[in-house]
């Protein structure tokens, strides 16, 4: 409409200036709207909201502005909540991975208050408690295994440690305890090189880079070669 007025009254400078200002404002508004939508598409809702708030300042009568702003706020809140949930899940999973179930439950407690109706966290809680009980049983097997070894009951002690490792191979302590037990058994069995070697090979199957087992196995081989030479004299 203003375009028509300017065409009909070219001599009126005020109309031309008003048209120029109107066009510049329209271009500014369209640019802000485009930037806001582009930011929303990239899920940068905070930055998009800044664009809508800028538009509210310069052109509060923009059609649907209130809806656009409320929509961005809701999407930002949802995005923040999803990000928070993912962060909580990651923290809890890290604790579970290293077998620190007490820490996992400690992290879970406030999370259940933040997400009271979230079934995933309820299931995680059940999972943690089950594995905590499982870990406690594993620790009991380790304790009994070490106790048997301390009493010289090599076979029974190793059996307990093997049960602990087989039941909970992801728990690093179970593997370390079994290796330590096998190494102790190999050292006290040096008078029976065949049995000692069996223990050492079991260690190397669990930990191929174990220096203690490699060194003791080399020592037994050297001893066997020395005895063979002495016998041949």
Question: Can you tell me about this structure?
Answer:
Helix content is 84%, strand content 0%. It has 233 residues and is an all-alpha fold. It has a domain at 1-97. The longest helix has 33 residues, at 65-97. It starts with a helix and ends with a helix. 21% of the residues are buried.
SSE map:
Layout: H1 2-8, H2 13-41, H3 45-58, H4 65-97, H5 101-114, H6 119-150, H7 154-167, H8 172-188, H9 193-206, H10 211-232
Helix content: over 70%
Our Rg estimate from Cα atoms comes to 37 Å
The general outline is: elongated
Low-pLDDT runs of 5+ residues are none
- One letter per element, helices H and strands E, the order comes to HHHHHHHHHH
Strand content: under 5%
Structural class: mainly alpha
For the termini, the CA-CA separation is 120 Å
What is the strand tally? 0
Assembly of the depicted chains: single chain
Main sheet summary: none
Task: Provide mean pLDDT, rounded.
Answer: 86
Tally of DSSP helical segments: 10
């Amino acid at each position: 409409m203003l375009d028509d007025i300017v065409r009909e009254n070219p001599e009126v400078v005020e109309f031309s200036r008003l048209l120029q200002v109107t066009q510049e404002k329209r271009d500014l508004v369209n640019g802000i709207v485009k930037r806001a939508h582009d930011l929303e598409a990239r899920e940068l809702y905070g930055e998009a909201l800044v664009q809508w708030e800028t538009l509210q300042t310069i052109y509060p009568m923009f059609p649907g502005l209130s809806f656009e702003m409320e929509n961005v706020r809701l999407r930002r809140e949802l995005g923040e909540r999803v990000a928070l949930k993912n962060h909580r899940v990651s923290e809890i999973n890290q604790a579970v991975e290293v077998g620190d179930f007490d820490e996992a439950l400690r992290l879970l407690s406030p999370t259940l208050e933040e997400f009271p109706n979230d079934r995933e966290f309820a299931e995680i809680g059940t999972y943690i408690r089950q594995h905590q009980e499982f870990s406690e049983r594993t620790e009991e097997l380790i304790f009994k295994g070490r106790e048997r070894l301390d009493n010289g009951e090599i076979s029974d002690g190793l059996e307990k440690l093997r049960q602990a490792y087989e039941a909970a191979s992801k728990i690093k302590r179970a593997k370390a305890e079994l290796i330590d037990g096998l190494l102790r058994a190999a050292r006290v069995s040096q008078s029976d090189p065949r049995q000692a070697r069996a223990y050492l090979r079991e260690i190397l199957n669990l930990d191929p880079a174990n220096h203690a087992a490699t060194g003791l196995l080399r020592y037994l081989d050297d001893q066997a070669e020395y005895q063979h030479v002495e016998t041949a004299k």
